[in-house]
Amino acid sequence: MVHSRAERKILGINFYVGEVGGAIERMGRGGLLVVPAAPALKDLPANKGYRDALLHADMVITDSAFMVVAWNFLEGDSIERLSGLKYLRELLLQEDVRRPGSTFWVMAGAQSAQKNLNWLRTQGVIVPEECVYHAPMYGEEIEDPELLQKIEQLHVQHVVVTVGGGTQERLGLYLKSHLTYLPAIHCIGAAIAFLSGDQVHIPEWADRLYLGWLFRCLSSPQRYVPRYWSAMQLLPLLWRYRSCLPTPAGELDHTPESGY
Question: If you placed Cys at 234, which of 39, 42, 168, 213 could pair as Cys (CB 3.0 to 4.6 Å)?
């Protein structure tokens, strides 16, 4: 399969590697956008639900600084990172996203929602109460008919999902598969929390220099240091599989013996 310059197949996933404006323009036509981070990407071989969500997404952006640096080193490539934070900043400048009633927000809980909505208000983005949904704790199988019904009734142009990585992608695929129409489903996770104060603030310069992980680790070492340390498991996956989808446990490995 021939890819454009704006795409790279990494671990079997088609990643968008173009400018943020191109991503925004593409998502204006509807579809599922996901922002996978390294701690979740390392689970591709074992987590079928997560793997399926990435494979069936319409756009996957290069939020993982570790993946980008490792890929460029291994492949002699020069792709750049497009973070979820940068994408969200640009998304919130769009007139159709800012228009009250055109965007539905799926929040991680009441406390997070309040902080996020307060911050959005300071940016001139007013979100009607009916366009906010507090997501429950989802299990391995995601079903949420109440959420589907709300989105169907409002028939919004955009759905922004701000729940945790590993879950939000599966929820996004659930919505894409079960809605009777296809809005733009933006699974941006914690990006808004870095702006609203729900999590540690990450300055634009730090995001640009791939240092968001450091700010999170310094803010809560016990929570984030083990998480990002575990992301090192992504390196052997990249070394072995490169552009191929990692073999799920129990399936025959078709990667070439000679590697790349």
Answer: 42
Beta carbons of 151 and 179 less than 8 angstroms apart:
yes
Instruction: Report the DSSP beta bridge partners of residue 34.
Output: 60, 187
Q: Is residue 193 part of a domain?
A: yes
Residue 59 belongs to what H/E stretch?
A: strand 59-61
**What average pLDDT does this structure show over 95-121?**
94
Question: Can you tell me the distance from the alpha carbon of 94 to that of 190, in angstroms, rounded to the nearest whole number?
Answer: 20
Half-sphere exposure of 149 (CA within 13 A, CB side): 4
| 29 torsion bin: left (phi>0), alpha (psi -120 to 50), beta (else) | alpha
Note whether residue 251 is domain-resident. Answer: no
Distance of CA 137 to the CA centre of its chain: 18
Distance in angstroms (rounded) separating the CA atoms of residues 84 and 62: 8
What is the domain range of residue 129? 9-241
Q: Give the C-alpha distances (Å, rounded to integers) separating 77 from 5, 21, 69, 240.
A: 12, 22, 9, 17
**Count of C-beta atoms within a 10 Å radius of residue 234:** 23
Measured between alpha carbons, how far is 199 from 177 in angstroms, rounded to an integer? 31
Does an H or E element contain 14, and which?
Answer: strand 13-16
Query: Is residue 256 in a domain?
Result: no
Rounded distance between C-alpha atoms, residue 123 and residue 97, angstroms? 12
The 10 Å Cβ neighbour count of residue 4 is 9
Largest Cα span, the chain: 57
The tens digit of pLDDT for each residue in 11-44 reads 999 999 999 999 999 999 999 999 999 889 999 9
Residue 32 lies in a domain: yes
Q: What is the pLDDT of residues 184-207, one digit of tens each?
A: 999 998 889 888 888 878 888 888
Question: What is the enclosing helix (H) or strand (E) of 34?
Answer: strand 31-34
